[in-house]
Amino acid sequence: MDGLTARYLAYTHEEMDIPLPVGYPCVHDAPLQRFFPPVDEGVIGRILREYGLLEDRFLDPFGASPRVALEAARAGAAILVVANNPINRFVLKRTLQPLRIEELRSALAHLGAMPKDGTRMERFLLDLYASHCARCGEPVSVDYFIWDRDLGGPSHKVYACDRCAYAGEAAATEADWERALDYSRRGLHHAMALEQVAPVGDPDRRHAEAALSVYPGRALYALTALLNKVAQLRIEPEMRPAIDALLLSAFDAANALWSHPEGRARPRLLTASPRFREHNVWRAMERAVASWALEDPGVELLDWEEDQRLEPGRVTLYAGSLRSLQEALGDSRLPAILTVPPRPNQAYWTLSALWTAWLWGREAAANVKVALRRRRYDWAWHAGALRTVLQNASPLVEAGAPAAAYLPEAEPGFVAAALLGFGSAGFKIRGRALRAHEEQGFILWELSGDQPQATNDAQMKTAMREAATSVLHARNEPAPYGVLHGGIWFMLAERGWLAPAWGTLGKATLQTIGEHVADVVGDEEVFVHLGRGADPESGLYWLRTPPEQGESLSDRVENLVVTTLREQGTITAEALERIACHALPGLLTPDQRFLRACLSSYAEGPDPEGRWRLRDEDRPEARSRDCVEMRSLLTELGRSLGWKVEGEDPLLWLDDQGEVRFGFRILETSAWGPSPWDTDSRVLWVLPGGRAGLIAEKSRRDPRLRDWLESGVRVIKFRHVRRLATEQALTREQLVSRLAIDPPERQDPQLPLL
């Protein structure tokens, strides 16, 4: 705990709700990116700076994301990464010690020049994907074929023709089909690929064979040809890392997990997509040159050696298990944990076993070969796996050590598994943030020696109901299932109920608590399920007895954006997001889509530097003049139609008997409160036209608002009031229809000819 600052202590011991650390999207298409946790750039560094952890030495017990080590060392911290998966280790090394583009080009040239069947390997591989241009008939090498799994062959091809300059998609021919199927029969290439992983008599052979099924026959033929030549020919040790990198990209590109037309989906199950891309192996290696040529981060990387000191700004990589690391560390302890827990990925873990054996042999794959046997990873299994890792990590860190865990794929099941894994391993939650729409979460833990007390089912359900209700009261608007689910599970972790529950139920804990959660949120006397579907995780949840007043979360976000823009004038989307996450922490964290809708409503941009500028018409003095003008125009218009006008908010039009016929609420923003539909149906809301898109986004988020807007004229724009004020022949009888031509969408409908 010596390295912790007062800021960390303030966050963890005074407030459970903490800001979600945010970064910006990675611009470089990193190797194997689709299999690694999608951690935005800058997130890890922001965790270290904002929670005062820069002086600490960290343990990353999972080694699931290269970005953890990269940004920790870049920020000046020392970190020890445990990476038992050889593929993870290789990617981490090549991220921190990148290959130069000259090395990669030289490796590609070396591979291309290897002899194969009387020609060069490059020509041999390109000819495997030979076809003819649909336009000019000239020979081409196809970039990728689009396979239809149900048809059992390619339906289309994508290529670029050097002769006629055509580039695009064309239907596959019968010759294309026959050529593809020539390699689908199991032959020597299949046996060799299988033998490298699990020889005859190996109990894992059938599992390895099942894993190979996601590779088209032609792909296995190409990869086997490459691997055999690399094994036969002498390769300089200096070139081997670049060769391995290109081969690894070829292994990844050649399988049938590249769904079409989705492109770079994040496969988690080892199942061929219904429509997939069969990539040209040589073209894949050509593309891989740019993918592996990463920018040098300027940090030092060392492999662990006994009695080695962890130095600031350095990454130390341990290739064994956490149990063996305990022996290596002896009595030494690390002050903190910094990690991104992995989510289950049967596809990547199984492929890691194949790829490791292909590249470095069966002995190198021994530690990950067990992945071949498991075909299904459910959340209960994953919670137990996380618990095991964290229990093995606990002896490596000091008592009371903080643990910062960022969850970039925080869907409900993963949140539950992570909380149960940490909680049952002896960690106590100190802070939480969750953004359900983007599935991003951040949790601060502390290794605790406390002995938590168990509870019974009735007490647990009562507390669950209170937690879910509290979340909705705090947000003051309907919320998705993930928010309620997160609020409930965070409460269980905060009260220390997860460890004793595991002690009683074991791996059945997650299922049992999940059933309790379903019972609680399904209680129709307390909660209303809006947009109800068959899946309880769909739609939104609200309270049967909602709060009578208060500002909705959407309105709070909008007001925050307006205030920030008016104070600063210009701002980047990333800076605004950070401000919003600090102002609205924990389970109030606003989603990026809504923040961008607010930004677009009030600002112009982005400019080349990524900055948004407050629109001139949305400056306070300009909008104040607009509101004064609206009151004046509506006053004059009401009187011209023969009504008595009185009041300001709302401004009322009364008939001769003093009955209100119309009322107008004039606002600069669309922050009209949590329940505008509860106002008198004769009241109209008058807003700037720039709020149209924001209103549309709010109605998408809240079905109550959508139904209210669709039930009749409710919102009119400033410019429409100006139009009505100029219509000399406007009568009372025409008014309702004239008001209705200005719905709150982005584009105005065409005005009728008068």
Label the structural class: alpha/beta
Oligomer: single chain
Domain module count? 4
> What CATH architecture of the largest domain do you see?
3-Layer(aba) Sandwich
**Rounded to an integer, what's the Rg over CA atoms?**
31 Å
| End-to-end separation | 76 Å
Number of strands: 27
**Name of the top-level CATH class of the largest domain:** Alpha Beta
Share of residues in strands: 15-25%
Mean pLDDT: 91
| Total number of helices | 28
Would you identify the CATH H-level superfamily of the largest domain?
Vaccinia Virus protein VP39
> Under CATH, the topology of the largest domain is which?
Rossmann fold
Q: Show unreliable segments.
A: 1-14, 746-754
How does the major sheet shape up?
8 strands, mixed
Q: What is the 3D shape?
A: globular
- Binned, the helix content reads 40-55%
Q: Strand arrangement, largest sheet? A: 11-12-2-1-13-14-16-15
Which descriptors apply to this entry?
single chain; 754 residues; alpha/beta; Rossmann fold; Arc Repressor Mutant, subunit A; 4 domains; 8-stranded mixed sheet; 5-stranded mixed sheet; 28 helices; 27 strands; disordered N terminus; disordered C terminus
Write up what this structure looks like.
By secondary structure, the protein is of the alpha/beta class. The chain folds into 4 domains: 6-19 and 37-95 and 309-343 and 368-540, Rossmann fold; 101-292, no CATH class; 553-614, Arc Repressor Mutant, subunit A; 620-739, no CATH class. It is built from 28 helices and 27 strands. The strands form 7 sheets. Strands 11-12-2-1-13-14-16-15 form an 8-stranded mixed β-sheet, sandwiched between helices. A 5-stranded mixed β-sheet has the order 23-24-25-26-27. β24 and β25 (660-666) form a beta hairpin. α5 runs antiparallel to α12 (281-292), α16 (412-424) crosses α19 (498-505) and α22 crosses α23 (592-602). The longest helix is centred in the last third of the chain and has 21 residues, at 620-640. The protein starts with 5 loop residues before the first helix and ends in a 15-residue tail after the last helix.
